[in-house]
Write a structure and sequence with these properties.
- By secondary structure, the chain is an alpha+beta fold.
- It has 2 domains: about 30 residues; about 100 residues, Roll (Nuclear Transport Factor 2, Chain: A), CATH 3.10.450.30.
- Helix content is about 30%, strand content about 20%.
- It has 3 helices and 6 strands.
- It has a 6-stranded mixed sheet, with helices on one face.
- Strand 4 and strand 5 form a beta hairpin.
Length: about 130
């Protein structure tokens, strides 16, 4: 009797499974967008990544300071996990909007780094 009752619901399970799969894909991609290869970033970003791995010296006082992730676009982490670095924009006399934010407890060996060209409105994970 139970099998007879479940038979009409079989189609709903397929729909539910597809819907959950689409949701999981959207959540996995989330506000971070697609990954971006380091070679696809502006040359200034590649130079900043090199400075991060060297431990500096950084041209801006705010470089290497804690990034609080107030926008909550990056994966949740304890305070102090993320650090921000300025990616200079040619022609600007101020810091501009471009940043690299890296997560990890050892700044010269980050677990993951993210690039934003719009001052934290969106991020793309930097992939090798």
């Amino acid at each position: 009797m139970l099998r007879t009752w479940l038979r009409p619901l079989r189609g709903w399970w397929v729909v539910l499974g597809l819907w959950l799969g689409v949701c999981a894909l959207a959540l996995a991609r989330g506000p971070l967008g697609d990954g971006v290869a380091l070679t696809e970033l502006p040359p200034e970003a590649r130079q900043v990544m090199q400075l991060i791995r060297q431990g500096g010296p950084f041209p801006y006082e705010k470089d290497g300071t804690v990034f609080a992730n107030r926008e909550r676009l990056l994966p949740p982490a304890k305070r102090g996990y993320y650090r921000e670095y300025t990616v200079p924009t040619p022609g600007l006399k101020h810091r501009g909007a471009r940043r690299i934010v890296c997560g990890g407890w050892t700044p010269t060996v980050p677990d993951a780094c993210y690039y934003t060209a719009d001052h934290y409105a969106s991020f793309r994970r930097i992939v090798p």
